[in-house]
Structure formats: structure tokens, C-alpha cells
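Hey all, quick one. A colleague (J.T.) asked me to put the pyridoxal-5'-phosphate job into the tracker so the inputs and the C-alpha cells live in one place instead of scattered across chat threads. No bug as far as I know, just bookkeeping. Sequence used:
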Amino acid sequence: MPATATRIDDCLTIRDGRLWMEECDAVELARRFGTPVYVVSEDQLRRNARRIGAAFAANWPEAEVALLPSLKANLSLALRRILNAEGLGCDTFGPGELHAALASGIEPARISVNGSVKDAALVIRAVEAGARVTLDSAAELDLVASAAQATGRTARIRLRLRPDYDGLDMPSDFDPSVTVRAGAHRYKPGIPLERAGDVARRALATPGVELVGLMAHLGRHRADAEVWRGMAGSFAAAVGRLCAGLDGWRPSELDVGGGYPAPRDPIRNEPAPPIEDIAAALASGLRHGLHAAGIDPAGIRLEAEPGRSLYADTGIQLATVRHLKEQTAPVPMRWVETDTTEMFMADLLIEHAHFQVIAAARADAPEAQTADVVGMSCGFDLLVPDARLPALEPGDVLAFLDNGAYQDACASNFNGLPRPGTVLVSGSSAEWIKRPETVEDVFARDIVPERLA
Ligand SMILES: Cc1ncc(COP(=O)(O)O)c(C=O)c1O
């Protein structure tokens, strides 16, 4: 990095007024690959994986720690290859994600197959491959038992619990009128606590089925670290209640799910606590809760499923300014119209996220205007309201930060717009890891019956 560079984070710098990701100039990337385009830093992904893993390992000396990043946050097979090389497992939800996880070469024993409505085909595929199945209902135990019998394989299972997060009576970021506890009760996944004991007892008595652990996922309700202490304490209480009725059975692994905020936390638009603080609060809450429930945590493997906190700041989205528009009356307005859309930054809609925007060729130029940065769909398409920006011209490249998690995975073809591709930056090299869609791709599934042709 040149001496004159200003660091935005570990992979983004400003050099001579231009935005760089690792050793690639963002404007050059936009020229070479076209816009809109997602761009991901390999270095940042590896760094995040190591940092999150180290944070949990440092706080859980009781046993091994494993990360099972959620595939849903970024479905790229190339990025999964990088995480495989880093030794990480994977949380999958449904048949598509299990297919992708197996296709990308993840060691099956490191995979957890989650999902709130699993069918027989998915369970057989998981058990046959040797992936762990995280049960969401009593009915799934029957599917697992049949799959074990049909395949001759041992089915390793965990139960997804629905702890009562008493103590988390603070408002959720999703909807401040709802508490975290109430929001979690409303969220469908998991086996109700009153049924979990029966399911566990049946599992322990079923040939070919091995109950190895328990799991819970609160999701990203709030960014403060103390929420994770409460989450883990309630999970431990649920674990204790379950184990109390199981004649000495103890989980060999406990999975605390994901939901940790991204470092810049675009949802609250302010920095999140460091992952080290979150891991410390979580591990401490779990340890104390287990002790209180009479369970010795020594030897219990801890698993976590980060999605957003792992991927978000690895990626930016580059777009091009197409048009500048201004009105002075009746209400003064100024718009910077770009070639992307809120459909390609879906967290604007789903999570009410606030993504920071940088003019890639004038990244440290003085702010000269306040404008709404908007997209090219017919929706409201407000990408950044009231952005403070330097003077701009059509053709200028804008970079939206923190687009590495969920933005591609949740993108849609609204208005018939082909979704962007993804470029992977590694040092000074850059290459496609997902090609951009074409208009033909968008309509490829359409069938016009002969009688309408
Ligand atoms: C079971 C499970 N684990 C992990 C995650 C990842 O959550 P996040 O990306 O907020 O870390 C999710 C997200 O919905 C999930 O459902």
C-alpha cells in the first residue's frame, strides 16, 4: 500500500483520490467488467474467517470450536472453495444449499442441514452423504430414521431448539415495537421445548440415529454484545431442561447459530461491537448457563454460523452514474441516477439497510452536493438518501460498501433486469466467479404454449 493511501478498512483504500480494493483500482474494475457488478476481496474473506474463528476459539477453551458459515449469505461456489481451504464447515438450508455445499467439496461431516420443512429426498441425500441433519420437527425424526435404514448409514442429528429468550425484552432492530424475545417466538424454526424431550428420547432409542448436539439461532435482532450473553444463557437453560429428562445424555456439540452484525453494521449505520466482544459475551453466557443447569461444558464442541458478519465487508457493488437530475420547485430535489437498483441491494428493502457510497474516482474530493442516489427500476429505488457527494458526471463510478452478504443471494429480476455478476479480487488480479445474467437468462424459464404462440 503506498504511503499516501488512506485506509477505509483492511481491503479498501483511497489512493490519489481513487478507491482501491486490495491492489485493484475500482474504476478500472468497472471498466473491465462493466457495471453493475459485485466485487469481493479474497483477502478480506480469509481474514474475516480467521478472525471470527479465533474470537470464538479464544473464548471457548472448553473444547474445539467450528465455524459453519451460512451458505445463504453468499451462494458463490468459488467463495466456498476459499472457506473450505480455511477449514470451515457450512450451514445449509434446503436442498439447493445442500447441493451447492456438496458440489463445492465441503467435507460432509462439517455440514449442518437446517431447514424448516425438510422432505424425504433432502434427508436421504444428507444422510447418504454423511452430513449432519438439524431437525426442525418431530416428523423429521421419522424421515431420518428411514433414511438411515435405506442408506445403511448412521444419521448424525442435532435438534434445533426454541429457547425462551427471557431477559431479552429490549426492542428488536427489525421492528422497535416488538421485543427480541417476542420476535424470536414469532419466528417459525425449531422444535417447541415441550416436544423436544420426546424427540430426543425417541432419537436416542432409534437404531442408526445418533443424537450429537443441539442448536439455536436467534438472528440479527440487535447489534449489542450483551444480547448474545442473554441468547446463550437462554439456550443453555433450554439445553439444561432437555438434558434433565434424558438419563445423563449430554450434547457433544452446541451450535449457537449466527446473526452477528457486520462490522460497519449497515442496518443501524454505526459500527458494531467487535466480534471478539460478541464471542466473549456469547461464550460466557453459555458457560454460566450450562453450569447453572448442572452441565459441565468441558469437552462440548462450540459451533457458530456467521453469515453477515463473515461476508458483508468482503464485497462492494460498483455502479455507473447514468444521469443527474435536479428540480428547484416546488420542492428542491437532486437525484444521481445509476445503472443498479434496490433489487440488487435487497437489504435496503428487507433490513432497511444504509449502505455507504463512495465516488470511486473522487473518493476524497470535497462534498459538493446532497443528492438521493437512486437506481434504474421503477420502484422508489432509493439507494442512498441525502448522500453527501462530490461533484459528479454521467459515467462516474460509485461504490456501495458492505454488499458481500445477502445482496446477490436475494437479488431479483424485477423490471426484467439481469442480475449482476461477481468478480473476485485477489491482490492485483481480478476474475469472474459468477457471470452476469443476460436478458435471455431472465426469460429462459418462460414457456409460451403453442396455442398462444
Ligand atoms: C440457521 C441459521 N444460521 C445462521 C444464519 C446466518 O445469519 P447471519 O447472516 O445473520 O449471521 C441464519 C440466517 O438466517 C440462519 O437461519
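Adding what we noticed when we looked at it: The chain has two domains: 6-41+313-442, 43-312. The longest strand covers residues 315-327.
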